[in-house]
Amino acid sequence: MIYIHFIERKRKVYRASITLEEKIIKPSRFIRFLGAYLNEGLTYKAHLDALNTKIPNLLKALKSITSSTWGTSLEAARTLYRGAIRPVLAYGALSWCPKDLGKAKGLAKSLQSI
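-> structure tokens emitted (114 positions)
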């Protein structure tokens, strides 16, 4: 069982534990809800941290199966990238991204660099 306190960014963080059936449950700093990571202040930082740990592993796996001597073709690698890696990057990003990506800040800017 997980619980989290959602707070305004300027407020002091209150971390109280809950005891249920003699079991102590401590508040979490972030949770995963419908595939998106949410932190206490409802900012994109928890989601970006999760992507920064997940994406390098996916790119490493893609690189290992697309070796120049024995790997898959460029078309197959592109299909794999579009079907497996890009959706991971894009999922939940619309929640934090501006409509005009030219003015991208925060999560959008980080995703563009990846």
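The mean pLDDT is 77.
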